[in-house]
Amino acid sequence: MKRKSIWRALLALLVLAGSAALAGTRPIRLGLDLRGGTQIVLEAQDTEEESVTSDTVGRTLEVLRRRVDQLGVSEPTLQESGDRRIIVELPGVTDPEEALEVIGRTAQLTFHPVLGTPRPDADNPGGDGGRGERDRDRDEEAGEDDGDELALADEDGQELRLAPAALTGDGVGDAQAIIDSQFGRAWQVSISFRDDGGERWATLTGEAACEPLGAPRRRVAIVLDRTVLSSPEVAGDVQCGQGITGGDTLITGDFGEAEAKDLALLVRAGALPVPVEVVEQRTVGPTLGATAIEASLQAALFGGLLTIAYVIVYYRMLGLMAAVALLGYGLISYAALLALRATLTLPGIAGLVLAIGMAVDANVLVFERGKEEFAEGSRLSSALTKGFSKAWTAIADSNATTVLAALILFFFAAGAVRGFGITLAVGVAASMFSALVITRALVDIAVRQRSLAANPKWFGMNVGGRLRKYFKEKPFDIMSRSRMWFGLSLATMVLALAGLVMQGLNFGIEFTGGRLIEYETASTVDLDELRGELAEAGFSRAVVQESGDGNVAVRAGEVSESEEGAMEAAVVALGGSAEVVRDEFIGPTIGDELRQKALIALSLGLGVQLLYLAFRFKWTYGASAVTALFHDLVILLGIFAWLGRDIDGVFIAALLTVIGYSINDTVVIFDRIREQRSLRSKAPLAEVANDACLQTVPRTINTGMGALFILLALYLLGGETLTDFALALIVGILVGTYSSVFTAAPLVVVYEKFASRKQPPVASKGAPRSGAGAATTSSKKK
């Protein structure tokens, strides 16, 4: 074996062994839908400065969401309840008390000038802490009001008099826990200011620097929720009136690692607008029943096995190697999620299994290119080597666009959408590794076995040849019928838009909120049976879970009096009685800020993908891809509008998956157009694009089949939760496949013609004009 092949095999074994070790030793965090978690009910409290309003509760909710995100809790649920309460549900939290300590603190960070120690009184003459007549005169001249002062103990227990805050946490841009290795590896919190925070800090420390060394007034107090964290003295080398510039500072104190990290988290997330009080803390059961979970897992497993069987039947020995690589992909993805401490939900499991189907794409690209080279006369080993080489650009470009989208979602989105970005990036990395390292290592070993290499048909080299030969002998002219394809797309989009206008989107409880009713029953209720009873009563999307000590909680959308009676009757039928112990209006779990961040992230993602495609191809390609993607999303949303299906968090995950699939599919065709243009520079672009589409048909069919087997199994055999998820992806993949061939590719030809008309002629005066899309070169031999 060649040295590269040996290193490739060793790398594959090392990564697989590490992944297996991690998977076998670290437990997975399961989401609220699979295992339940901790529910905390917080109530906003009025203060002298601010009364609780709907706006205050909304702002409090978003601060709490940022804190939970930075705690590393994945897939939490936060929603308003009533006028001033907020329900926080945390899956997989090992120490609820610690989480409560972090998310429930007001965390109002302030920076104060120190006025001195307490004023002397009758029982303590001269207890002014060294304050002279000059200091007292300056206090009077400044018109200081004792009512605005704070008297707080510093970190050593000495009481200090503090002036009103000169700077608050609003001026802080970032905070990180760091180790000061110079002084016994003590933990500190590094703070960076933003906006005018740096100037205000310089002013505060500049005024303190005018006081003599050792004087209380030379100190600055850093206070969190009326507790002095640190009250350092401004250093002697700081100039009076200039202060500490540079826009950052340190909070020092007797911090342990956990305390420093929690403090940095609180400062980053911001202060709560009003204090919150814990009203209730309880354990809640999973939102999905055991029957639904089991059915969905069986469907996912069945679909995955169908996909693997299809790949093996079509590609023979290569398919078997791809199946092994895909299992390795699943193991690596699972281990990566464990390493990132991600929380696994049922849609997440379905997404992982679906990703196995979509990961077939990289293997299919390699195998199809290898079969093309074999058909041209190359030996088996040489053909497959060329297949890996020629498929590299398509794999790299299609996955690069997906990674860019994932990074945008991670840095700019929040909540479940941000979590999807992490899962997406992990999936792409694992997919490329499985195809380019694991599959390549297995192929290298196989083609060096003479008995195998002597039988190319064992590698599926003869399968699919008839289709390729048919298109070569009787090419179907896609580009000449572009007006027909555009007309069909336009008509479908108009129909979809009509559905959006006339029917509207049916937003689920995650977007709209609704009612939370908790019942105490005489006997234990089988939650799976209750879900079935409620579905028959018209509440197919109701969320049912155990709450507290055997109570049953039901969340639904708007509930009328008659519907409430039907709901109670279903509970009575199974529980003997149903006493309502809690009945509240609840807000959406996907609030305005989450929606806004998700839309911003999606827009940025599309923009970045357009720029990348413009850089790697041309702007016309980027514009064509984004236009085709818009076409796919409008049709998908329109179909869901006409069908009256719910738009919820699971649908958002499906929508994001469709975006990735559609762009990936389009880039593969663009890569083939680019390759063919470099080989046939004088051929018309329409002819080149047509051939590129036909050459990628086997890959398009096999990749689509790999995903559709899993999706059909989920749709037909899975639980109610995954039905809409599977339907959205089935529609998205079918429409995305159509648009890649019949919308994006013809649009490239149209946009290129438009661009060539706008460009001034480059030929010298008197030279004949070249046709659109043709390249002209000249050389002069000396």
Brief descriptors of the model:
6-stranded antiparallel sheet, 4-stranded antiparallel sheet, Alpha-Beta Plaits, alpha+beta, 57% helix, 4 domains
What is the topological layout?
Layout: H1 3-25, E1 29-30, E2 37-44, H2 54-70, E3 77-81, E4 85-91, H3 96-103, E5 109-116, H4 133-141, E6 150-153, E7 159-162, E8 167-168, E9 172-180, E10 186-193, H5 197-208, E11 220-224, E12 227-230, E13 248-255, H6 257-269, E14 276-284, H7 290-315, H8 317-339, E15 343-344, H9 346-375, H10 380-412, H11 415-447, H12 450-453, H13 465-473, H14 482-502, E16 506-507, H15 509-512, E17 514-520, H16 527-536, E18 543-547, E19 551-556, H17 561-575, E20 579-586, H18 592-616, H19 619-643, E21 646-647, H20 649-679, H21 685-695, H22 697-717, H23 720-758
Parallel strand pairs: 1-15, 16-21
Antiparallel strand pairs: 2-4, 2-14, 3-4, 5-7, 5-8, 5-11, 6-7, 9-10, 10-13, 11-12, 17-19, 17-20, 18-19
Helix pairs in contact: 1-8, 1-11, 2-6, 7-8, 7-9, 7-22, 8-9, 8-11, 9-10, 9-11, 9-22, 10-11, 10-18, 10-20, 14-19, 14-23, 16-17, 18-19, 19-20, 19-23, 20-21, 20-23, 21-23, 22-23
- Total domain count: 4
Number of helices: 23
> Strand content of the residues, in percent?
5-15%
Enumerate the spans where pLDDT stays under 50 for 5 or more consecutive residues.
122-147, 763-782
Structural class: alpha+beta
- The counted number of beta strands is 21
The largest pleated sheet is described as: 6 strands, antiparallel
Q: Oligomer, anyone?
A: single chain
